[in-house]
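Because showing beats explaining, we let one protein speak, sequence and backbone structure tokens together, and leave readers to judge.
___
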Amino acid sequence: MINAKSQQLVNSGKFSFVAEKANPTNLDVINIMNSLPAGNSARMLDLSAGYYVHFSSDEISASLPYFGRMFVANMDHTKNGIDFKSKSFTINTSKSTDKKTVWAVRFNDVQNVRELFLEVYKNGKAYVSINANDRQAISYDGHISENNDSGK
């Protein structure tokens, strides 16, 4: 069972995933990061505060950085992250055999993001994987926290 506070937040459907580390799937990106002077991809992929996915009953919003290959890049580099708000989505929730809660979210009104998977573990830690139409998949490690309405 996940800890009581995280379980209560996930059951309410109103919570935030706070990203702490990005996990790109493209090995070329990691090799480039490691080739930089004094570069270390593990350290570069640790994220500062402020990257999130907010969940509520009527909206899901996200602001996450992206590291990887984009098939259709925006000329404005500030818009190449994963940044969206959705009001039309379907959620399938399940509990796996190792007692983690899994949310599979499919979006109907977000142009580039096809689906998002959220796994919440016993200790309140969480994992988000995002599949998009215009870029390679990426995942994030983080934790569950209370939804901050002012951050929406």
